[in-house]
Amino acid sequence: MNKIGFNILPWTAGVSSNTFPILDRLKSIGYDGIEVLIGSPEEKEYKALAAHAKSLGLEVNAVTVVGEHENPISNNREIRQKGVERLKWIIDRAHDLGSEILCGPFHSAHSVFTRTAATEQEYEWAAEALRIAGDHAQQAGIILAPEAVNRFENYLASCVDHLVHLVQLVDHPHVKAMYDTHHANIEEKNVTSSIQKIAPHLAHVHISENDRGTPGKGLVHWDEVFTALNDINYQGWYTIEAFSRADPDFANAINVWREYSDPWEIAEYGYHFIKSNLEKFEKK
User: Which residue ranges does the record assign to the Xylose isomerase-like TIM barrel domain (predicted)?
Assistant: First the structure.
């Protein structure tokens, strides 16, 4: 049974009690869960957010990134080791949240480039880090779902082909893959074939419009997306990921320079958009 989630990044990249009214309203809309960014160093806030979400009957999943000084594919061994330790810390915070899924492009540092194509050595380094992280995640009951992100943000895994290659190298039961409709809209040639290719490894899906605004009001080929996911019998989360400039530090870090849609329009329209698309297949 699919569940519908919402990443709270249109309001904040934080996990403080300031998020609680957001969670309350998302629950009232009908969401099954939320997704939060693991980045804040305040460890106690993760458990507090988890407790509030649980009181509402909301599940919590997590997303994260790693930076240049903790890059799992750096040619500097000490930096790679810091990357592994950072991933372990992040997994611990995901456990504090009660998450079953930790997703994101944490296979390598976000927006860090060498100005050359990825090497097989870099894939091997990423696989080694994810294998160790996978062992840690397995103890916490968490599935890691690394993400392919577009060529302007990443060079190791910018498309489904790259991501599948990496996950196969890792070869770990708790390291799978996610599919993000925004990045796929940029990088993939065909929606159906890309979803079929990632299907054996697929653990999580981000519903994200081409402009990062309201799903269903942009250019993504949504009929193909939902049909292909239904055809492979995908049973995981459909989680909306959209961005805004509400949190300027986060927005600046990911090159968000304007507002795409009102956050509550995204949440309200997006929920019903996903639900109506899923109901099409339930009626068949």
Answer: 23-258
Reported as type and span, the H/E element at residue 223 is helix 222-231
Which residue do the tokens 């995204």 mark? Answer: 266
Give the three-class secondary structure for 59: strand
What is the CATH number for 34? 3.20.20.150
Q: By percentage, how much of the chain surpasses pLDDT 70? A: 99
3-state secondary structure 60-123: EEEECCCCHHHCCCCCCHHHHHHHHHHHHHHHHHHHHHCCCEEEECCCCCCCCCCCCCCCHHHH
Residue 24, phi then psi, degrees to nearest 5: -60, -45
Which pLDDT score, from 0 to 100, does residue 284 have? Answer: 61
Domain count for the chain, please give it. Answer: 1
10 Å Cβ neighbour count for 69? 14
Would you state the structure tokens that stand for residue 51, as one six-digit string? 């407790």
pTM beyond 0.85 = yes
Q: Which residues are registered as beta bridge partners of 175?
A: 144
Nearest to 221 by CA among 258, 182, 261: 182
DSSP sequence for 160-219: HHHHHHHHHHH--TTB-EEEEHHHHHHH-S-HHHHHHHHGGGEEEEEE--TTSS-TTSSS
CA–CA separation, 97 vs 92, rounded Å? 9
For residues 258-276, average pLDDT: 96
